[in-house]
Amino acid sequence: MAAGDNHASQSAPSAIAVATAGHVESVAVDEKNEIVYMSSIGEQMTPMEKDGDGSILVADLKESGTVEMRKMIKGGKLHAPKGLTLHDGKLYATDVDRVIAIDPRKGSFEVVADLSGEGAKFLNDTVWADGVLYVSATDLNKIYAVNPQKKTYSELKTSEPVKGPNGLVWDRNEKILYVCEYCTDADGKPAGRLLRCNPKTGEVKSLSSYKGELDGLALYQGDLYFSDWAAKDRPGAVGKLNLNSGDVSPVTTQTMNGPADFCITQDGIIIVPAMVDKKVWLQDTKPASEQEPK
Ligand SMILES: [Ca+2]
Ligand SMILES: [Ca+2]
């Protein structure tokens, strides 16, 4: 299961891959309890199908050197869960045309927003921002603001169209919603942008000339990390944008087919689902040359 090129390290390779049950779209970490949650859309790459074979996987990291995964949901069926967010002890996710809240202790879930009436089939990421749960609808080119208590939603009106909005992350200091796009242009070339959106005004601005087929987003130590399906055969399946300089640089070095909704732990370990490959990669965010000698 392990792979890596840091032979100087005897204890741990610089990156390892773990096989997953089905195609994992999203990961979320419970740092306190050392648990990684993953959403698996199932055995087929059918992210918009209501096929009933989706699952939430739980990996307990306490036992060093082993990662044991179990399926969490005990009642009801999920189809293609994506966009996990941990908030106040609950896991929020999208599932094709609905937004769900999962109780990890009970293994149960409830629907907190049903967007089937909007024609949604590819709801994607979720993020909490000052009491609002924002949800991207990749197929509708829209972002919704969900109120899970009232089970209501409304569209976030933006100053310009967003095309295939996928990853969302909230900057609580700047009160800015970062959004990345998963889309191609008329020639099939990657055309997804890294955007900032002020949810109060709806104003959208592009952050960089970088274009990709962008999926996940994370903020870590002032940099905006993103995953790019177009970088599957070169370094930078996960890259980062320096928000001050605008410079973009690759972070991960491994080949990852379908780098989807990753996360970064407080210690700087990046956890990336290679969705198409049915793997999850763990790698330090720092280059090997900057990591502490083992
Ligand atoms: Ca499925
Ligand atoms: Ca995603």
Automatic annotation (TrEMBL):
SMP-30/Gluconolactonase/LRE-like region domain segment(s): 81-181
Organism domain of life: Bacteria
Pfam families: SGL (PF08450)
SUPFAM superfamilies: YWTD domain (SSF63825)
InterPro entries given in the database record: 6-blade_b-propeller_TolB-like, SGL
Protein name: Six-bladed beta-propeller tolb-like
Species annotation: Akkermansia glycaniphila
Upper lineage: Bacteria, Pseudomonadati, Verrucomicrobiota, Verrucomicrobiia, Verrucomicrobiales
